[in-house]
Design goal:
Largest sheet: 4 strands, antiparallel
Strand content: 5-15%
Mean pLDDT: 81
Number of strands: 9
Shape: elongated
Structural class: alpha+beta
């Protein structure tokens, strides 16, 4: 309705007889509004269908983390609310996957690198409004939420919302069908022992506190065994700390009026945590290694031995004597490893116990392997009499896992390089856009005032004499007749003839200074920018205030300036 009124006024230069502020029902009573609305609704459904098809046909591109989160959410809700139907559960899952994850990219695709624009191009306001409308329909479809208290034209979309949800439902069922992380990433309880780099986690202080709180609340279900290591860790940590406990008491003063806001900001501050096992034997001086550490060192010793000395079985290799040539080759291999370790960054270096094992001779390593195998059998890690075969199977599994880890690491490096290249390109593109728009705006503003400057000899002579465009003067009564001036607060219409408005062109193109005089006395001045008026028109604002008292019709003021100054 407002678009129709604005378009009519801008084209005719006459004030519309229709009121600016109406209810939705009053706006829908006009046939022209109904016609435009029907076209817009059909267009909206078409765009929504296209976007929904693009989403549902690209399930493989949905990150595993989001899919697994959706799966856990559904299972947790099903356990918590066994009486809830599948439809109700998938409504919540749909809200997570679409509204929380996809909706921001639908509303602002340029902000999430979904779309790339060259210099001089960007999403128009109308396009952004259309995307907002499509996103709203998709949000209601994902959550199966009908329009209830809205106008009739929106309630008419409820049948379409139901059809959209049915398509979303199939997508959500497939999205929740993912394997467990252990299967997805080929991890087990011993995988940590073959990882050279300790995991690094970025987490905010607020999330850290919430995680601690959740672990304490659900420790009975997470670790029902009293001897579970997690229970020992939670006992060591004690109660849940506050933000002040983490950042220190001197950061926030007790009497500070903004203490809550400051603490809220600190709760969003991210910290990096290097995850180190409390039970890692390499960080202690204890001579009694735990099963994990002992298994790791034994596997490394076995690999060193079988690389130097052949044999049909591990038992034969360990019982056979080493030749002088094999000992010499072993020493050279250890020297090459030491040289390689010397070039390795500090954070990626091998554990000191593994380095110490490298100084042993081949025969000493065999004897240590035999002792370690008996110890692992005593700890229950290996089951006799097949302990040798079992540890060889574990070594083979580690080799396969390491190969997968290397492949994933290479793939991640490729993605990181691509991301870095994309960020560099986007940075250069933004700089180029800034330069382009700055030049474009300057050129447009200059052309606004100089468009017809050289349109004839008479005009040129006139301009050279005057040096600048003349001032435009109107009484408030005349502007009121043209529809430009709607009202002046605390001043009756009968006094409008005593108020004169002077519109003076500024030195910079597209700028004006509006002076108000009452009975010949200068009252106030108002700086006016043409581009600000265009911005208001884009936003659908029909009325603006000038001098905090005069209400001005934006569309008709633009029409007046175009006619008098820009010859449009």
């Amino acid at each position: 309705y407002k678009s129709w009124v604005n378009q009519t006024e801008s084209q005719t230069g006459q004030k519309s007889s229709l009121p600016y502020e109406v209810s939705a029902e009053q706006a829908l009573s006009h046939p022209e509004v109904q016609r435009r609305l029907d076209i817009a609704m059909r267009h909206l459904k078409t765009l929504t269908d296209r976007l929904l098809t693009a989403i549902t046909s690209n399930l493989d591109k949905l990150p595993y983390g989001m899919r697994y989160t959706a799966k856990v959410l559904k299972e947790a809700l099903q356990e918590k609310f066994p009486q809830a139907s599948e439809d109700e559960l998938y409504k919540i899952v749909g809200n997570l996957l679409y509204y929380r994850y996809m909706n921001p990219a639908v509303v602002a695709p340029d902000g999430f690198d979904v779309l790339e624009f060259s210099a001089g191009s960007a999403l128009l306001p109308d396009q952004r409004r259309t995307l907002g409308s499509v996103a709203r329909i998709l949000q209601h479809g994902a959550a199966h939420k009908h329009f209830q208290g809205d106008s009739a034209h929106l309630r008419a979309l409820n049948d379409y919302i139901t059809l959209t949800h049915a398509k979303f439902r199939k997508f959500l069922v497939a999205a929740c069908d993912v394997p467990e992380p252990e299967e997805r990433f080929n991890m087990d309880e011993y995988s940590e022992t073959v990882i050279l780099n300790k995991p690094l986690v970025y987490i905010s202080l607020g999330e850290l506190i919430n995680t601690h709180q959740l672990l304490l609340e659900h420790k009975d279900s997470l670790c029902p065994d009293p001897t579970d290591p997690l229970r020992e860790l939670l006992r060591d940590l004690g109660p849940v700390p506050s933000i002040v406990d983490l950042i220190g008491e001197g950061v926030v003063s007790p009497g500070d009026a903004n203490a809550e806001q400051t603490l809220a900001q600190y709760s969003k501050m991210e910290v990096s945590l290097t995850l180190t096992s409390k039970f890692d034997i390499f960080g202690s001086a204890d001579d009694k290694p735990d099963a994990r550490g002992l298994l790791l060192s034994t596997k490394q010793l076995i690999i060193d031995v079988i690389r130097m000395q052949p044999g049909d079985t591990l038992g034969q290799v360990l019982q056979a004597s080493s030749s002088q040539d094999q000992e010499t080759q072993h020493v050279r291999m250890m020297q090459r490893r030491a040289q390689r370790d010397a070039r390795t960054p500090e954070k990626m270096k091998r554990n000191q116990s593994l380095v110490a094992d490298g100084n042993l001779s081949l025969e000493e390593k065999k004897r240590k392997i035999l002792r370690s195998l008996r110890r692992l059998e005593g700890l229950g890690v290996l089951a006799p009499p097949d302990g040798e075969a079992q540890i060889l199977a574990l070594i083979a599994k580690d080799i396969r896992n390491q190969r997968r880890h290397r492949q994933r690491r290479q793939a991640e490096l490729v993605k990181l390089r691509q991301t870095l290249h994309g960020l560099d390109c986007k940075s250069a593109f933004h700089c180029e856009q800034i330069d382009y728009y700055s030049q474009y705006i300057r050129t447009c503003l200059d052309n606004l005032t100089a468009k017809h400057r050289g349109s004839g000899k008479k005009s040129a002579e006139s301009k050279s004499k005057k040096g600048k465009q003349p001032t435009l003067s109107y009484t408030a009564a005349r502007l009121h007749e043209k529809g430009v001036l709607l009202e002046i607060e605390d001043l009756p219409v009968t006094q409008f003839k005593n108020v004169i408005f002077d519109i003076v062109p500024g030195e910079e193109g597209g700028t004006f200074l509006v002076k108000a005089r009452f009975m010949g006395v200068d009252m106030e001045r108002f700086p006016l920018k043409y581009q600000d008026l265009l911005q208001l028109q884009y936003e659908g604002v029909a009325v603006m205030k000038m001098f905090d008292k005069a209400k001005i019709n934006v569309n008709l003021l633009i029409f007046l300036l175009n006619k008098k100054f820009f010859k449009k």
